[in-house]
């Protein structure tokens, strides 16, 4: 595995750990992170249409841009509630753990072709 990929894996582990700490500090039960972990993988349903639609829907659901935008809206007061923080943190946790495990952003040719390399192949 290439050195930049290892750096991304270490970074992802740090993000996941930070999310757990913040999540618990905000008074949310840690087990929610595990309980709804797979919910974010509903973004894979686009693959039922085609690899291109699947890659786009997966990447939208697995990019830090979504949780960062929700966090920003919450921070500037556009959304006044605790639920955006809950959603942001569970979403970021899912992305971090996925990337830690090697599930990167998808290319449009096939599900296993990611920016972190091939998923499910012996490296």
TrEMBL record:
Stretches that traverse the bilayer: 12-40, 81-101
UniProt keyword terms in alphabetical order: Membrane, Transmembrane, Transmembrane helix
One Pfam family per UniProt: DUF4260
Tree of life domain: Bacteria
Keyword Membrane annotated: yes
InterPro entries in UniProt: DUF4260
Name of the protein this chain belongs to: DUF4260 family protein
UniProt source species: Ornithinimicrobium pekingense
The organism's taxonomic lineage, starting at the top: Bacteria, Bacillati, Actinomycetota, Actinomycetes, Micrococcales
């Amino acid at each position: 595995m290439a050195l930049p990929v290892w750096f991304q894996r270490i970074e992802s582990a740090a993000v996941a750990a930070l999310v757990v700490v913040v999540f618990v500090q905000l008074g949310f039960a840690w087990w929610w992170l595990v309980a709804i972990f797979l919910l974010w993988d509903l973004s894979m349903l686009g693959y039922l249409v085609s690899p291109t639609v699947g890659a786009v829907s997966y990447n939208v659901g697995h990019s830090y841009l979504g949780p960062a935008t929700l966090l920003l809206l919450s921070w500037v007061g556009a959304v006044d509630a605790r639920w955006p923080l809950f959603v942001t943190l569970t979403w970021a946790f899912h992305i971090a753990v996925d990337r830690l495990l090697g599930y990167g952003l998808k290319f449009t040719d096939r599900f296993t072709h990611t920016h972190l390399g091939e998923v499910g192949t012996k490296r």
